[in-house]
Fold this sequence. Notes:
Blueprint: H1 23-37, H2 55-94, E1 105-107, E2 111-113, E3 116-118, E4 121-124, E5 130-132, E6 137-144, E7 150-155, E8 161-170, E9 177-178, E10 183-187, E11 197-204, E12 207-209, H3 211-216, E13 220-221, E14 226-227, H4 228-235
Antiparallel strand pairs: 1-4, 2-3, 4-11, 5-10, 6-7, 6-9, 7-8, 8-10, 8-11, 11-12, 13-14
Amino acid sequence: MRQRLSSEPDRYRGRRRVPTPPRSRYAAVVTTAFVGAGIVALGANALPDAKSVSPSALDELRQASVTSQEAAARAESADVASRSGRTDKAAAEQDVWLLPLHGYDFNGPYGMRWGKLHTGIDLVAAEGTPYLAIHDGTVTKAGWFGGYGYTVIVQHADGSEAIYGHSSAVNVREGQQVKAGDQLGLVGNTGHSYGSHLHLEIHVNGQPLDPVPWLEDRGVDIKLQVEAIYADVAAS
């Protein structure tokens, strides 16, 4: 072996040869760094030529990472939308208030009449016309009720009560759970009545209130025969 002369430059001074890692370990390192850190692209000069990674393999890794992230985002978005949709629907269903009849004539408003308080409103319709529950609740009365004739009383979750009087027939039983829009009975002329009509009362804490403004606050206009809340729910 020829001895290096002191006058020759030392070309290897300050250099240290780094051993090449095994192929499997190298591939694992590259894959982990790419997927875990979210590297979009690897420069060609970042790897030794002898250990370069196939461009097609990098493309597959990059596509798998992007696809996985997109799928996770879609799943999360769908789950949030589903939960929100279920919650909104449930809340809307609980808040539905309806007209008890359609195609009636509004007659006999709440107020003083013949020297005494008329505690409800009268909706004139042909005898035998079905009438419906204005809101979800529990039937607490279904039968004869003195001057009201055949009557259905429904208590709502908020404690208010709706009284449907002068029926020709009732189609529910006491203790039955009803939903807004369920048929309760048929319009009639029983009890202290003067002509076929539905007598509707609203009681809160045992006291009668004018049904017109009370239902207006809940999206139902008795005089105009409009069900604003129900229309919004049906359109959604």
